Amino acid sequence: MKKLIKDIKLLGSRDWLICLAPKPLSYIGELWDWILPRHRCNWHDKIRCFFKPRQKWIKKHIEYNEWCDKVELIPNFLFGCVINYVDEEKCFEYLKFDGSLELEKFAAELKKCYGYAKNGRGDLEKQLDEAYPKIGDLTSEELTFESYEEKYAEVHRLEEEISKLDKRYMTWIVANKNFMRA
Q1: Which residues contact 92 (CB under 8 A, 6 or more apart)?
Q2: Per-residue pLDDT, 79
Q3: Which residues make Cβ contacts (< 8 Å) with residue 57, sequence separation at least 6?
Q4: Cα separation, 85 vs 92, whole angstroms
Q5: pLDDT-flagged residues of the chain (< 70)
Q6: C or N: which end of the chain has fewer Cβ atoms within 10 Å?
Q7: How far apart are the C-alpha atoms of 121 and 161, rounded to whole Å?
Q8: How far apart are CA 167 and CA 95, in angstroms?
Q9: pLDDT reported for residue 148
Q10: Do 51 and 146 touch, CB atoms closer than 8 A?
Q11: Contact between residue 168 and residue 113 where contact means Cβ atoms under 8 Å apart
Q12: Can you give the pLDDT at residue 136?
């Protein structure tokens, strides 16, 4: 009994119930810790973030309605970050150039990246969708026997261009992430 009282004084009743109490009593300590946590921020943050997620803007750029590979989500996420940084955080209003050549170069590249992410990539993807040959519209007389390379030359060119620009701008975003602190 003396050891029990000494342990409770040493650890406190909550920690004794969680750590040293026999199994049925330890559940009381865990329940106590869950209902009345030691710090207010523990339960408050859990509840607050459940009802009002902090990074809700990400869902605008990543569509959950259809299946896709994670590799396809990476450009959507990174370009969504740039769009949010420019549109929502109003980075050009808060950037102070101070005659710094490095910041001016960053701002110029950011504008190019933003233009590509906002409009350019979508336009290229529309062109890609239209570049596929239409099979159902042709009659048997209009069918020509072209090779695969001839039929899909424009598709391959557009896919390569999208891939090249995506790699260029995604690499730039990751390399310059430290400048994007607002």
Answers
A1: 86, 107
A2: 93
A3: 80, 84, 88
A4: 9
A5: 8-11, 13-14, 16-17, 27, 29, 32-46, 64-65, 97, 136-145, 182
A6: N
A7: 10
A8: 26
A9: 77
A10: no
A11: no
A12: 65
Residue 66 in 3-state DSSP? coil
**Rg of the chain over all Cα atoms, to the nearest angstrom:** 29
**CA 176 to CA 95: how far, in whole Å?**
14
Task: Report the alpha-carbon distance of residue 48 to residue 75 in Å, rounded.
Answer: 30
Return the structure tokens found at 182: 């607002």
User: SS3 for 118?
Assistant: helix
Structure tokens at 168: 């260029």
Q: What is the pLDDT of residue 92?
A: 82
Rounded Cα distance between 95 and 113, Å, is 17
pLDDT of residue 49: 73
Binning the chain into helix, strand and coil, the percentages to the nearest 5 are 70, 0, 30
Whole-structure pTM value = 0.66
Instruction: Say whether 35 sits in a helix, a strand or coil.
Output: helix
Nearest to residue 78, comparing CAs of 165, 161, 156? 165
Distance of CA 5 to the CA centre of its chain: 52
Tell me how far the alpha carbon of residue 16 is from its chain's centroid.
Answer: 42
Q: Which two tokens stand for residue 150?
A: 């001839």
**Two tokens at 37?**
């946590």
Task: Find all residues with CB under 8 Å of 30, minimum gap 6, and list them.
Answer: 18
* CB-CB neighbours of 25 under 10 Å: 12
Q: Which two tokens stand for residue 134?
A: 């239409």
